[in-house]
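2024-03-11 09:14:02 INFO worker-7 job=invfold-0412 stage=load source=structure_tokens
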């Protein structure tokens, strides 16, 4: 099956904490391309990848980077390879997708993993960053925009780094809906690289946001999956 839009010459880099579904996002992308290759996934949607893995199809490269903080051995090697990969993609067309679960609260630990990845990648990452919200079957996509207005400072900072560009992925939906997810992703990829902008530190209040505990995190009592609480 052909790509919904031309992304020939593009490299799509996937990263995220173990269990966040980054490899599943990669496989959704790969299923729209002319390839039968997929990234291996263990139980619980945790990636089985322990090395940086690249799959190419239709002139597009999809790169899966393992969570270097969750490897028994080889974490430092992955860190070195991230720096090398970043340098090799300079002056090329690429996007970095950071996988974040939308059914659980975004934690400081997870943000620290992103910050280390950001440091390893280098200063240009924010111009190429898109947040890939995963486990979309547990989230009402019509309410996502509203919920993102009340997220904690760490997630707010990440979203600001990404220019508030994000895509909600649902690996449980049918192929038609998955194609729409890819269309949404490729629309955002087509706008890269973004102009550099100043990020917002999670230790400082963002514009228009009060930092009382009540407003940083809103806990819903409704019986539906609600992200980031």
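2024-03-11 09:14:09 INFO worker-7 stage=emit residues=229
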């Amino acid at each position: 099956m052909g790509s919904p839009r031309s992304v020939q010459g593009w490299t799509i880099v996937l990263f995220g904490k173990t269990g966040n579904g980054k490899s599943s996002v990669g496989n959704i992308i790969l299923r729209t391309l002319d390839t039968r290759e997929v990234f291996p996934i263990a139980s619980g949607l945790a990636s089985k990848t322990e090395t940086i893995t690249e799959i190419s199809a239709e002139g597009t490269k999809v790169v899966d980077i393992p969570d270097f903080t969750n490897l028994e051995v080889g974490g430092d090697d992955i860190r070195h390879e991230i720096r090398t990969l970043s340098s090799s993609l300079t002056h090329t067309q690429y996007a970095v997708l950071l996988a974040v679960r939308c059914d659980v609260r975004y934690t400081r630990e997870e943000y620290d993993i992103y910050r280390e990845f950001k440091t390893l990648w280098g200063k240009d990452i924010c111009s190429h960053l898109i947040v890939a919200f995963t486990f979309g079957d547990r989230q009402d996509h019509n309410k996502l925009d509203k919920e993102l207005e009340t997220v904690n400072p760490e997630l707010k900072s990440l979203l600001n780094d990404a220019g508030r560009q994000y895509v909600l992925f649902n690996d449980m939906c049918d192929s038609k809906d998955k194609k729409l997810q890819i269309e949404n992703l490729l629309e955002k990829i087509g706008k890269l690289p973004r102009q550099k902008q100043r990020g917002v530190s999670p230790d400082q209040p963002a514009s228009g946001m009060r930092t009382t505990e009540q407003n940083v995190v809103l806990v819903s009592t409704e019986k539906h999956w609600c992200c980031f609480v």
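2024-03-11 09:14:09 INFO worker-7 stage=report msg="Strands lie at 10-16, 53-57, 60-64, 93-101, 129-134, 166-168."
2024-03-11 09:14:10 INFO worker-7 job finished
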